[in-house]
Amino acid sequence: MGVTQRSIATGALWTYGFSGLMLVCQVAYTSISARILAPADFGPYALAVSVAQVGTYFVGSGVVQAVLQARESDRQSRLSATSLVFAAGSLVGIVISAIAAVLSSKPDTQVMSSMLFLLAWMPMATGISGVATASMRRSGRFRLPSLTEAMGLILSLVLSLVCMVLGVGALSLAIGSLSSPLISAILAWTLLREMPRLAIARIFNNELFKVASHISGQNLVHYIQYTAPLWTLGASDSTANVGHYSRAQAVATIPLNQLSQAFTRVVYPHLAATRHNGGDVSSPIRKSLSIGLSLSGVVFGAICGLAEPLTLSFLGEQWRPAIQLTGLWAIFAAVNLCYVAAGSSLESQGRFSAIWRVQFVSLVVLVPALVGVYLLGSSPVRILFVAIFVQVVAHSCQLLILIRSRYLRFREVASTYLHGIVLFSVVAVSGFYSTGFIGGNVPPFLSLLIGGAISCVAGVAYLACTYWATSTRNLVSVLVALKPQKLKKVLA
Q1: Residue 197 backbone phi and psi in degrees, to 5
Q2: Region 377-389: what's the mean pLDDT?
């Protein structure tokens, strides 16, 4: 079964449906774990999982995207992909284990060391799981991979919470992070009725290795840019402040992760298939960017405006220092979702050299900025301002490349982004002032519900008043097209 307009819309429906379920579970988990563990427990975990994620990007992200981009999805392509994952995953696992062994000799990093010993094998598990689910999506089957990922996440969160209740402590967080891809991998390969195998001769499969190495390198550099501010903060501040930084990031970016996956797992295969078939990708690229901008305005505008009741409701009073960070993370997430949408467009068209130019510019801006903040005295707020600025610069470079490549027009980009910025501001300001008017007279959760309702009304009212805008029409057309009788209009 190929990737058709109907399968794209159906895939979006299943992906967003299960993403919504996973979002609810992650929010519940974040809220419960924040009340069981102390802020200082999340500092070592944030640093440990960030190191393991570097390995995940090196091992699996490029391979998964290469499978999604492949002309066909068959056993041979899966064999090549799993062979590459096994080889790279083993190497990364050994390196991370060695880092953990070094850290275990220092008293103040022993907790982080224990976590790293577990998380060392997360990159391989994530890659093996990703190959199976990407293969299903490439062939047009979206429901089963979404189901396996949701089940893996839910079961791992339950396992992690059980460990916390039993007194395992901060290590429970690492147990949950490792078990999620393991469970998903077992379920996905069972559904494929295959076993992931290693074939030495298939590791350097020409086409897959070339695409995977390009994408992995680019994703790895982007992730390092994304995580370098956290490492800078960890090197210069207390574990409690690192914990506040990481939990504020979790509150604001859980929706970002789910929305980003929808672009990479649904839109990406469609753009790649259109490219292979010689079709025009300009219209799908324009629509995906405008949809990403509209979603950013609504979702992250609300999070920014409702940062105080949201943080206090889901994390508790002990996390009050994270309120301002949650609002800043929402701004970062809004820019990052647009970055992901533009990046998926460039990757799906094989524009790897252009992506490397974007990464280079980001590094040139990021490194001196972080050095300056470190020398002046880093704080979570300063670090986040640097991260937002670098993300804006990187996304601006992406847009310039897409305009020069004639996928986008400057006037259209300017009007679309002005529309998105105003939408974000309307939703954020309405939420902020509504909760400020209510004040401390009501519990945070009730304040969140009232402010959220007012933000939604403000966002819908703005979209209704600007239905003439391309971004609004694109967003509404996709939402309407998710109905079975109108699937053919999606990304047409």
Answers
A1: -125, 160
A2: 90
